[in-house]
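Hello,

Our lab assistant flagged a job as stuck in the queue for most of the afternoon. It eventually completed. Since we weren't sure the result was trustworthy after the delay, we are filing this so someone can double-check. Below is the sequence as submitted and the structure that was eventually returned. Let us know if re-running is recommended.
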Amino acid sequence: MSGSLQATVTLQNHFAREMPQMALPWRAEDFPDRRMVVLNEPLATELGLDPAFLRDEDGLRFLTGALDLEGATPVAQAYAGHQFGGYSPRLGDGRALLLGEIADAGGRLRDIHLKGSGPTPFSRSGDGMAAQGPMLREYIVSEAMHALGIPTTRSLAVVATGQKVYRETVLPGAVLARVASSHLRVGSFQYAAARGDLELLRRLVDHALDRHHPELLQAENRPLALLHAVLSAQASLVAQWMHVGFVHGVMNTDNMTISGETIDYGPCAFVDAYDPAAVYSSIDLAGRYAYRNQPAMAGWNLARFAEALLPAIHDDREQAIALAQDALNTFVPQYSAAWTSGFLAKLGLRDDLEEAVAVPLLEDLLTLMQGSRVDFTSFFRRLGQAARGRPEPAREIFIDLAGFDAWAERWQALAPDADAMDAVNPIYIPRNHLVEEALAAADEGDLEPLTRLVDAVTRPYTERTGLERYAEPAPESFGKYRTFCGT
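-- returned structure --
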């Protein structure tokens, strides 16, 4: 390794060094036929990485975990988790590696993490590989979420491995390089708690606080302070998902971050016609993680987080439970306030509107939208035109015209701000039919649909000529949508 290369990439190893019981040193597979599929150049620059370097051979080796860097300690992270309600005491990175941390332009530590880099001892008989399609889906959707202002892990690059991946069919393989504030999860704390190692659990609490809430290291009860911080972050995050019609699809406790960032874009999708029961995951047969259930599932996950923290919160279990329950009781009010405030913003209304006025107004609108199967995203943009005195574009998509007219009269009486609406209601989202179109083309070697879609969704609020189809609902022929996790 040359000195110039070391100057190009400097990784730190805080997690590997501070949490060795949860960090298994491991190496990625070597993929000699690797090639760049897509590189996020703005993110690379933000991280202080040279895009030209990342595109050359050493850069591709770095992005797939095959490059040795001085001081770096690639590890597979250990964690537990509840998957669809069933507890697994040992999950971990079965097809992933944490390469290390990098300081971005603002001095913040960011994880560089790989998906699809090969099997680890956590693979549970899996092949450790990833198909190109699901990795590109994560690239598209995570970058769209970032552009929407929703906390999220981000995608630095997708690199084709040159190998085939065997799922329902034979697919091209790829590695995703993911960037996150950290990869600490509720499942990380469940793993530490399950070991019965109180010292490890307390050290993990301090590690999380140092990474995400250093101001709370002075708190009298640090584990309880962390619980409150994560409750607040997740209440805000899930409310933001609801505001844009995002369905995560696999809200297991190992997919809920301590940072409050969205993670793991497997069987995810955006609601087209508004339907509270929308489910897109092929394996969520009971609708556990349906759109409308996401707040309740977040609360359930956070209760599991509180359970894991109990031994560290207080030596007396009954007192620990009481303190944790008091904290958990704040989740619903925080979520409800965030949900109401965000939807009022979508309607161009102040968030100090009386609850007795705001809540019925919102609930009545959503009922009308569901009854007419109104497209969630385009409706709110059309409603901005109604706020400017042109109601027909919004009105014409309702079956119950009298019901919409009566609702609109109540709404207009509150003097909505059309410009404020345009600032929070996107024109372009990763519509499911467009995502599938881009992924299918990419598998055939055509990246132009992917490039155009990423360009649209990473500037979601700016209407542009030539992108009309990116603002339109799926055609009827697209049918019922299902996604797969890709493992």
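-- support follow-up --
The delay was a queue issue, not a problem with the job. The result is valid. Residues 1-7 have pLDDT under 50 and may be disordered. Residues 3-180 form one domain.
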